[in-house]
Amino acid sequence: MKILDRYIIGECWLPFSSGCGIVTGVWLGADQVREVFKLLSQTNIDFSIAFSIILLNIPKILLITIPVGVLWATFLVFNRLSSDSEIIAMRAAGISFVRITWPAVLFGLIMTAISFFISEVVVTWTEPTAKRIEFAAAYGLPFSPSMDDFTYFERSGGKRIGQGGLKRLFHVKNCDPVNNSLKQVTILDFSKEGIEQLYFAKVGRWNIEKGGWELFNGISYYVSPEDPAGKGHTSRFERILIPAGKSTDDLIKKLNEVKSQTLFELYQMLSNQDKLNIQTENFNKLKMLFHQRIAYPFSSVAIALAGAPLGVLGRRSRTNWGYIQVGILIFMYYALQSAMNSMGDSGKMNALLAAWIPNLVLGSIGLGILWRRSSFVS
After folding, report:
1. Are residues 128 and 208 in the same domain?
2. pLDDT in tens, 316-347
3. pTM of the model
4. Are 209 and 346 found together in one domain?
5. 11 shares its domain with 98
6. Which of 121, 126, 190, 284 could form a disulfide with 56 if both were Cys (CB 3.0 to 4.6 A apart)?
7. In a domain, 238, yes or no
8. Within this chain, do residues 212 and 307 fall inside the same structural domain, yes or no?
9. To 5 degrees, how large is the angle CA 29–CA 160–CA 254?
10. What's the total number of domains in the chain?
C-alpha cells in the first residue's frame, strides 16, 4: 500500500464512522428501541435486559448501514480533496484519476471483509441470543441458550404478559419442534382448586386439534390439601390429554428457528434439498438468503466506485450537486434491492441474479460517473 493509498483510506475512517453511526442510531431509534420499550411496557423486565437486546441487535443493523457509511465517507473525502485542489496536485504529479480513486475501492474491499466477519461470526451469535432473551422476557420464561431444559409458565388472568396467577408449570428435558416431540415432560398443575397434580411423561406433544398437551407413557400424582389423610394418589397412563388455554407450539418453533446459519450451513442445507429433490416453501427464500450473504458485503465496493467520483467538483462548478445525487443513489439502491429480494423470494427470478443485480447496476453507474468525472480533472 503506497503513501497515497494510506492517506486517502486514513481520511475515510472519520466520515465513515460518523455516517454509519448516524444511520445506525436512526435505525435503532425507529425500529429496535420502539420494540424494546413496547416490551418494557408489557412486561416486568429490567432495563438492563432491554438494553442488552438493543446492543445485541446493533451488529445486524451494521450490515445494512455499512454501505451507506462507505458512500458517505468516499463522497466527503473526495469532495474535500477536490475543493482543496489536492486532486489537481496529484494529477500534476502524473497520477491518473483512476489511480486516485483506487484507495476508495480498496476501502470498500476492507469494509467488505469486515461485513463478512460481522455476518458470519458476530451476527450468528448475537441475533439468536437477542431473540431468545426477547422471547424469554415476553413469555415470562427463564433464559435458555438452547432448547434443552426448556421451562414454560402458563398463567391465568392479568392484562400484561407475565402477570396473573400461576396455572401450570411445564418442564421439558429435550425439544424437537420439527417433529413436534417433547422428551421427559414434567407438569405441575394448579388449575383445579383444592387439588395439586403432578405429571411425568417420557414423550409428549402439543395437540393442535384438541388444544392441549398430549402425554404418553407416564405417571400422574395428585393430592388434595383438604384430604384429612394427606395421602396422594398415583396412577400410570399410556396416553392422557391435558387441556390448555394457550399453545406453546409457535413459541417453541420460533425459539428454535432464530438460529442464524453460516454460509456453509446454508450451502449444505440447499445441497441436501437439491440432491433429494425436495422443494419446501422456504427453498427459494433460503437460496436468496445464501446469495445475499455473499452479494451484500460486496455492495461496499460498488458503492465506493460511485461515491468517490461524485465528490469531485467540475472545473467551473461552484456548487456540488453530488449531495442530492448521493441521496438518489441510496434510495435507488435500496429500492432496487427490495424489489429484487421480492422477486427472488417468490421464485420469479433466479436467486443468484436477483442478489447481484443491485451491485451490478450500482457498479455500472459508478464506472459511468468515474469515466465522466475523469474528464473534469484530465
Report:
1. no
2. 555 567 778 888 888 888 899 889 988 888 88
3. 0.67
4. no
5. yes
6. 126
7. yes
8. no
9. 65
10. 2
